[in-house]
Structure to design on (229 residues):
């Protein structure tokens, strides 16, 4: 089965700096890679996703890059703000979406 | 759009009782629903995947007789924790994925916090 690893587990950055979270996966059949943000006690919210036919996708301050050969993908948050503080999860899924596995999570703290 | 609800949001029960958690997709038809378990400060652990009208597929290590999943319609899936024990206390989250043509993304319910005394 799929094995998704995520690093780092915790990350603290100064407000305005950039934050990078990296994930690797093991199943070459995976071709959909979403990122979720989860605030304490709340549901995970999809913030950005990427599919295997593209290498990079950007949405305002958030970007995701994918290296399918190396089986890794990363989340980049620029100009971080205190409200970006949360736990971020990466995930990997196949096209059918019937196999969906999460990374272990990264607790991001943005220091004002 | 793409709203998923869960009920109840919090339940406390005595050891040995069974608890049913409902997951509903409110504005779309969910051909596939997923059930996750999340311990404090940990990731979401996929328990099972259910497709409407068929038996759920359980992940390795998840007892299907303990965690009964029913996906009776395109908008409702239920998870029943049978004979709950304190070690079953956790945050249970469902998610739903749309039907044909869907891009594959999942939409999560707000979660159900189960406390077994």
């Amino acid at each position: 089965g799929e094995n998704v690893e995520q690093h780092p587990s915790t990350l603290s950055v100064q407000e305005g700096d950039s934050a990078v979270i990296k994930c690797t996966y093991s199943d070459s059949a995976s071709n959909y890679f979403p990122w979720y943000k989860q605030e304490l006690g709340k549901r995970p919210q999809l913030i950005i996703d990427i599919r295997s036919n593209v290498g990079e996708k950007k949405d305002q301050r958030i970007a995701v890059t994918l290296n399918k050969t190396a089986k890794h993908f990363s989340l980049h948050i620029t100009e971080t703000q205190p409200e970006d503080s949360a736990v971020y999860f990466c995930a990997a899924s196949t096209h059918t979406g019937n196999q969906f596995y999460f990374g272990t999570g990264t607790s991001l703290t943005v220091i004002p | 759009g793409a709203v998923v609800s869960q009920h109840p949001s919090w339940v406390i029960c005595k050891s040995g009782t069974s608890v049913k958690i409902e997951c509903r997709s409110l504005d779309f038809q969910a051909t596939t629903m997923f059930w996750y378990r999340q311990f404090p400060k940990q990731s979401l652990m996929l328990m099972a995947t259910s497709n409407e009208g068929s038996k759920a597929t359980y992940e390795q290590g998840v007892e299907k007789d303990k965690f009964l999943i029913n996906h009776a319609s395109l908008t409702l899936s239920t998870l029943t924790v049978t004979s709950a024990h304190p070690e079953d206390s956790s945050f249970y989250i469902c998610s739903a994925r749309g039907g044909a043509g869907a891009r594959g993304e999942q939409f999560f319910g707000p979660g159900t916090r189960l406390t077994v005394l």
